[in-house]
Amino acid sequence: MTDWLAQIKNAKKSCMVENNLKKVHYELGNGREMVEEYNMDTNVVTRRAWRIKNEMGGEDKWDVEIGDPEVHFNGEQQLLIKEDASQPVVSRRNTRINLEWRIRNLPYSIETYAVTVDNEKKCLVVRTTNKKYFKILRIPELDRLQLPPQQESVQFTHKFNTLVITYKKPRELLDFDKAVLEEVNKVKPKNYGDMDCKPS
Prior knowledge:
Blueprint: H1 2-10, E1 12-18, E2 21-29, E3 32-39, E4 44-52, E5 63-66, E6 89-94, E7 98-104, E8 113-118, E9 123-128, E10 134-138, H2 140-144, E11 154-159, E12 162-168, H3 171-184, E13 189-190
């Protein structure tokens, strides 16, 4: 935790406030950027995205860690890639006490699913007894703090064709979230027009 917290503290940070969201931009060095959005009522991260500049100096697309995936358009504002509406779609959420994954378009009953910790790969594995679905879910928050996932922290429910998986945050992650929020609160918000970074 100390190493990752040090990177956050040493990062060049700027922020803006818009529609009850505090948007914080981090420049972490080596071409790495991170953007977080905080709900100002709950102080919970509602979105986190990463970007790493490529070797040619250009800017790559944002990789969304928390929140809904980005929708990409071409120059004529036409959708470039549209997933089959019936295919399972994974999105990440964050609450004060849990990490959460929502996998939509999974119609099977609750007893069909198993969500287990893979201790070797340090991830969650979602599978169905009918072998119709298999997914590996990374837990970057734990990876950054070098914490192994624990099976007893995993719960899941199923409703409206959506599998909702929750992972109870360990004390170390709760303490880290608190420490990062203290750093974020030190950054003076800028007006939208003064923002020197592009929101993800």
